[in-house]
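Run log // design_07
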């Protein structure tokens, strides 16, 4: 199983707030944006929390629902995540330590 940041999947709630009460309400709008999914695929997308979602899918959902990415997938602190290992420092060409790339800060996911 892939482990990553914990998030709450809010697609069903967003749809309901937009008057979309059937998962099949997404089939045509997605198709208009070049994303062809079966009824069962759309049902799973709405009813379950996906492990992976393509960026094109997220952008299409944001366009359809008139929302931001953070409205669909809300980061949560749940305490069940494994502690992340600190990446090892790399050696620079001159022999000094180069700090590893920092994780994406939480502000990145905030609305402007």
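design_07 sequence
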């Amino acid at each position: 199983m892939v482990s990553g940041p914990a998030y709450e999947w809010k697609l069903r709630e967003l749809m309901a707030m937009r008057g979309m009460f059937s998962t099949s309400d997404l089939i045509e709008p997605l198709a208009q944006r070049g994303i062809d999914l079966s009824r069962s695929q759309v049902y799973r997308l709405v009813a379950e929390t996906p492990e992976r979602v393509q960026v094109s899918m997220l952008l299409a959902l944001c366009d359809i629902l008139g929302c931001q990415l953070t409205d669909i997938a809300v980061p949560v602190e749940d305490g069940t995540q494994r502690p992340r290992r600190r990446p090892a420092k790399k050696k620079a060409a001159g022999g000094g330590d180069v700090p590893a790339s920092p994780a994406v800060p939480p502000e990145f996911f905030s609305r402007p």
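The domain at 7-81+88-109 is CATH 1.10.260 (434 Repressor (Amino-terminal Domain)).
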